[in-house]
Amino acid sequence: KKTDNIDILFYIKYNKNTQNINIFTNVKRKEKKMKNKLGVKAALLLVGTNGVVSAAMITPVLAYIAQSFPGDSTKVSLLVTLPTLVTIPFILLTGKIAEYVGKKTLCIVGTVLFILGGVAAGFTDSLNIMLLWRAVMGVGGGILFTVPNALVADLFEGQERATVMGHMSTCQSVLQIAAGMFAGFVGIINWKYCFYGYAFYIICLILEVITLPDLPPEKAEKGSAEKSTGNEKLGGKIWLFALLVFGIFASGSVYNLNISMLVIDGGFGTSVDAGVVTTVTCISTIVFTLLFGW
Fold first, then answer.
1. Are 62 and 270 in contact (CB under 8 A)?
2. Cβ(44)–Cβ(170) under 8 Å?
3. I need a labelling partner for 209 at 20 to 30 A (CA). Which of 33, 89, 268, 280 fits?
4. SS3 162
């Protein structure tokens, strides 16, 4: 029996002595054929970095932005936190949409929204409009949060899959460093220029259009499989792990929101120094993700 993704082989074994008939099955996953595997990997490595770059691109210049909008420190902080808040519901929605829309299409739509929301925020003098564009970027980030990892699971097997996942994490750290340094240097000239850095993802968009295979959407399986898993509950260890991860990301957000203010307003340096400080923590991440990929 052949399907789009797997071949199911049935073997019949007859024992003459006992006159027993045994039936065996073997499920063989089809190898994914990619015309340009290197291009696919490059696209996935880049598209998977949007989450860290969205904040790293403007974190070093938050103090400058706050100086331009005195009395609106809460709204200035939302420039970093709002995209994340918008991302959460769209992560859940994307899982459902992926049952009916191909992952390549979702990647392209998410990247377009991410670029549009990121770059457009630099063309307005209104903090409220800026927040609106940041929300649009958060929609794109929500779409792109799970789709790249799902594509890696679909397109790669075994050790190659683990290697790609490790390289994705490494690429995230490298681009986080690059985004922080870019923002630090251009922020001295004009903090609005930091938003133009999101145009870098046009390269990612081109790679997605050219290289990503157009896999059919995977509709949810219904029937007995759904019934057997519908009542399963998450164990206490899973909830504890989720709580720990939440704490790590929450503490990281507090750090990113305040480090620019501390460095610049405290007279310790400029946005360049703030950019350096925000990227130092990425060095250990690069080392351990490379080890995971190996």
1. no
2. no
3. 89
4. helix
